[in-house]
Amino acid sequence: MSIEINAVKRDVKGTGASRRLRRAGTVPGVVYGAGKEAVTLEINAKELFLEFRHEAFHASVLTLNVEGKKESVLLRDFQMHPVRNTIQHIDFQRVSATEKIHVKVPFHFINAEIAPGVKTGGGIVAHILTEADVSCLAKDLPEFLEIDLAGLEMGSSVHLSQIKLPKGVEFVQLAHGNDAAVAAIAKTRGGAADAAEATPAA
C-alpha cells in the first residue's frame, strides 16, 4: 500500500501560530533527518486523518510531497487531542535508501481457530506481542508480518526466532539475544496469565 501525504512549508512558528493552523483545519508538522535541515509543515487535517487511520501509515515508508518535491519518510511521532481525537502535531523522518531503519511492524495472526490447542484443547490464543522492532533498508520494510498459529498445541508458544522474515529484514530483539514469545495457547481460565506461565523463558 502506497501512501502519499501532501504538505506545504510553514513559515510562521510558535504555539499561537499552531493553534491558528488547527482552527483553520490544518495540522502543524515537521520533517527532519538524512543530513538535511528540518522543515516545518502544515497538512490538511481531514486528508491526513484519512491516511492516519490505516495501519500501514504507522509501519511503512511514506511519500511526503512538499509543494511538488517528494521524499521518502517514516512517521516518527504525533500528538493527539485528549478529547477530540484529532492530530495536534506530527513528525516525519527522512529515510535514506542506503541506511537501515528501525521500525515497529505489526503482527497479523492467522489460523488461530484451527490450532490444535484451540480446536481440540479448548484453549485461547494469548497475543503476548502485537508488534516488534525490525531493522532493514527502506525498500525491504514489510507492512506487517504474518504469524501462522495452525500448529500450536496447548501450552506451546511462538517465538521471534520461529517467524519467517522477508529477505534483508531482522528482529532487533533477536540481534540482542532476546528470543521473545509472540503468542501462546493457554487454558481458558486465566488467559494471558496462564500463557505467561506456559511460555518458557527466552
Give a description of the structure:
Helix content is 18%, strand content 41%. By secondary structure, it is of the alpha+beta class. The chain folds into two domains: 4-94, Beta Barrel (Ribosomal Protein L25, Chain P); 101-198, RNA Polymerase Alpha Subunit, Chain A, domain 2. The strands form three sheets. The protein has a six-stranded mixed beta barrel with strand order 1-3-2-6-5-4. A four-stranded mixed beta sheet has the order 10-7-9-12. Strands 8-13-11 form a three-stranded antiparallel beta sheet. The radius of gyration is 21 Å and the shape is elongated. The two termini are 34 Å apart. Residues 190-196 have low confidence and may be disordered.
Query: Biggest sheet: strands side by side, in what order?
Result: 1-3-2-6-5-4
Counted by DSSP, the helix tally is: 6
* Total beta strands: 13
**Proportion of strand residues:** 35-45%
Q: What is the radius of gyration?
A: 21 Å
Structural class: alpha+beta
CATH architecture field of the largest domain: Beta Complex
CATH superfamily of the largest domain: Ribosomal protein L25, C-terminal domain
Mean pLDDT comes to: 89
How are helices and strands ordered from N to C? Answer: EHEEHHEEEEHEEEEEHEH
